[in-house]
Predict the 3D structure of the following.
Amino acid sequence: MPWTSTNRIYAKPSNSSAGEGGPLVASRGVSATAATTAAADSGGRFELSDHGYGKSSVKLLHVHRDGERHAIREFEVSTELKLASESAYIVGDNKEVVATDSQKNTVYVLAKKHGIKTPEEFGAVVVNHFLYTYKQVAEAKCHVMEYPWERLQAGAPHNHAFVFSPAATRWCEVSQARHEAVVVKAGLSGLRVLKTTQSAFVDFVQDEYTTLSDAAERIFSTVVEAEWTYDNMRKADFDNAWLTVKDAILDKFAGPPDTGVYSPSVQHTLYQAEKTVLEKVAEISWIRMTMPNKHYLNIDVSKFPANVTKGDPRHYIYQPIDKPAGLIYAQLRRRPKSRL
């Protein structure tokens, strides 16, 4: 028979686990003796090693109106729930399923109720809500991506006008399992940078497979991806930490405006940036960066007659080559403190 409201769970706030309070009553249309786990259903041959569901890409614009001065932050929020039960998968029993449309509505309601100070703090509000409200939820995750708006500068900061400034995208993922602490991972993506000098790559392995020559002077360009975790959410200043990571990358890549900084390799620049982050932000426990090498190859015009190529010697022409690309990454973490 069709599902009716008598088969549904109307959640009440609870911090208890899904297994507490006795066995679950079978829903109409589902046998009380039906196997409700993959292991039981397959006679012990298989197990559901991971599962979850949620709502992706819930877009919202938060506007804070303080008199004539307004502030905005735009986000794309995704939620994910893992239920203690496997029944929805094994026997098609939806009585514990919090619909993804309800998850979407929850994001909007919580944003209206609490506002959004930072992506990380809002993510914590969302996962805490799902764990507190629905006893059948074993773990909740919330991924928040922020669109990079900046206040328009029209001689002075504009009260209510903004410009999209996509230098880098900020994101975070907040997760919490029942009875466990909140885990916060944050990151930036798409930070594309380029410098025209003070970069080299020399003294690498030369053998029968090598055609690349030493480059004592080259263009250095990359698109930085970075992610990190916080070991203390209560003390972290999330906005300041994100800006510190971004500034550390730019500083170790570019150096002072007039003199710059020499880079003997992408690896060295990446490490220097990660070390600076851990030195400046005590709440970050580890940071991982990737830097694909976006090549710009010098156009050799020596094959052309001199009267054809003669021109201003200050002109240099390069060909952008984004694929294939070298991919450099590293993760730097704090060493555990000795117990002695």
Remarks:
- The longest strand covers residues 318-333.
- The helical segments are 38-41, 87-90, 100-114, 119-133, 238-254, 266-280, 306-309.
